[in-house]
Amino acid sequence: MKGRLILGLVVAVALLAGIVTPAGFALAVENHAHVTVTGAPSFISITQAITTWTVNDTPGAAGNGFMEPSTTYYANPANDAGVPSDPVTDGQCYFTVTNASSTIPLTLTVNWGNFSGGDAMTNSDTGSATATSFGAYSYCTGMTYSSGKVVAKVTGSSAMKTSWTTATLKWGLAISTRTDAWASGDAQTSTVTITATAT
Q1: What angle do CA 11, 13, 15 make, to 5 degrees?
Q2: Is residue 61 included in any domain, yes or no?
Q3: pLDDT value at residue 27
Q4: pLDDT value of residue 59
């Protein structure tokens, strides 16, 4: 039995000794490598500080809180009847939108829905008022108001701001009320939506 073990070891050693590597080559220690891939996701997130506006009753400005026919009102903290200047200043914009996104340029679009309640106005989608419809615009700081304000439609409005990368942006709204008098004094409510997309 002892002799067989010795013979087996001798054969094993002989087999190992017979392994010869080709000239100039060494046995590989490792035949692969690793690459670590890192990516920062692009995401869009905005927040709106002030979420309500009572037409003709901006805090700190003259107004009685009632809309009159054939009248244009502005979401202007100084005065709801104050037309923004060229260019628009921060102090003429009631709203502030905050950019909580990645550092990517954003496009801001403002849509303004129809009113509901009482003798409700509809959005003309043209910026001009009619007998039963209102005209609407959005604007933002730095814009030339007289030529740059943007018609705020129910859907499909043009961009109010493109390539926006700053932390915050001041912006406002303008509404031209219907030309006919209302048949009801019930309050009306509508929703304005500001949307951010990648520029």
Answers
A1: 70
A2: yes
A3: 58
A4: 56
Q: Averaged over 147-157, what is the pLDDT?
A: 98
51 in any annotated domain? yes
- Taking a C-beta distance cutoff of 8 angstroms, is the pair 178, 115 a contact? no
Total structural domains within the chain: 1
Half-sphere exposure of 15 (CA within 13 A, CB side): 6
Cα Rg of the chain (Å, integer): 35
| pLDDT 10s digits, 87-127 | 999 999 999 999 988 778 999 999 999 999 999 999 999 99
Mean pLDDT of 162-184: 96
Strand ranges in the chain using DSSP code E only, listed in sequence order:
46-48, 72-74, 95-99, 106-112, 122-123, 133-140, 150-151, 159-164, 168-176, 192-198
| Helix, coil or strand: residue 99 | strand
φ/ψ bin of 50: left (φ > 0), alpha (ψ from -120 to 50), beta (otherwise): beta
Q: By percentage, how much of the chain surpasses pLDDT 70?
A: 83
Determine the 3-state secondary structure of 92 from DSSP.
Answer: helix
Longest pairwise C-alpha distance within the chain: 120
List the domain range (segments joined by +) for residue 126.
Answer: 46-198
